[in-house]
Amino acid sequence: MPASVKKVKVPVKPYYGDEEMEISFPASWEVNVCRMNGHDAPPLTEAQMRKAFANPIGSKRIRDLAKGKKEVAILFDDLSRGTPASVIVPFVLEELAEAGIKDENIRFIAAFGAHGAMNNWEFTQKLGADIVRRFLVYNHNPYENCTPLGITKFGTTVAINSEFMACDVKIGIGSIVPHPYGFGGGYKIILPGIASIDTIDANHARLKHSPSVFMSNFEENVIMQDIIETGKMSGLQIKVDAIMNLKREVTALFVGDPLAEQLEGIKLARKHYATKMVKDMDIVVANCYMKANEMVLALPIAAPLLSQKGGDMVVMSVYPAGQICHYFGRSFGKKFGGRGWSVPGPGSRQACLPGATKKLTIMVPYPDRTGADWVVPYELVNWAHSWDEVIKDLESRYGSKARVAVIPDATVQYFPEALERVCEPVSD
Predict the structure, then answer these.
(1) Quick one: which of 98, 247, 312, 414 could link to 283 by a disulfide (CB 3.0–4.6 Å)?
(2) What's the CA gap between 379 and 363, in Å, rounded?
């Protein structure tokens, strides 16, 4: 079990400085820091990155696939994912240059599914200022300009971004991390990434209740199978997927056929993001970092650590932009929301606190009252704007004795022992 500590540093503010925040606890408390196995894995060198591109998995090199072709689309994920795309893109462009592709024939498309559109500052944070100056960068629109491609064996009617479909070289950049629907990476850059809202709805809403759909499961996962079939229909040729440490540094890179490289990457990801579980905690502090703007992902990860007698869950989201706009899974009024959202009440996902949680505190230094809409009804939340507020409240109730678990990034870590206890998956 991790050693007891008085102070703990957790990563905060991805893309906004990527800082560390120190949180403190009474010296008499037992504090367990639950770090994932790969939290301090060393970043790849330039030579190691180049080697990954020179030895793709299950496909030709990008330069060979692009030779003699003209129009190139490069997909990238948004700020709800930790992928440091700006570090990866230069190697992709190097390959395209070797194939004789000109800048004016390359465009970047933000593949964020049903998330809100990105602005130019966000493009720059993700891709780097030089890329935004040199190339056309587009947002995906899930409601318009999607090309019908057919129906999957699961009955999902597929329509994919038309600008992407018009290109003859199709590349994606992303990362492999555990997800309530299995794993990120691979063809997820297509579905939900650049799929129509109807396709996203058919995949997410209809298939998520299958017993095969749960955190870190990939094989026999019906949502993943549907995504793979859709991705193959789209013609995505190359995917570049990163695995990252808790500084958002690339520690492993998988390049190649979208399914082949993802399968290889998942082997490492299962070990890299796995975290030793502690049980029967009075308090669980779930920090949100790589997906700080999707704090809903932290709750099912943190809940199994609490004592069955009940305890406190503290979710930390230190992120200036707040929670993402999510056209599928969030509210747009007290009684109105996206297709994957339901009005809080009996039978809804937001009806009660998760697991054995007696009190849920959400610490957000920045105003974001509606940010709880895909977690629980906001009136069930104890809102705090600083760690001082949080610890003062906890000390007043626990006194000199408490067992605490701190999860440095509950949005990408997972506890293999607790998978069967994770509650119903939430939307992308």
Answers:
(1) 312
(2) 15
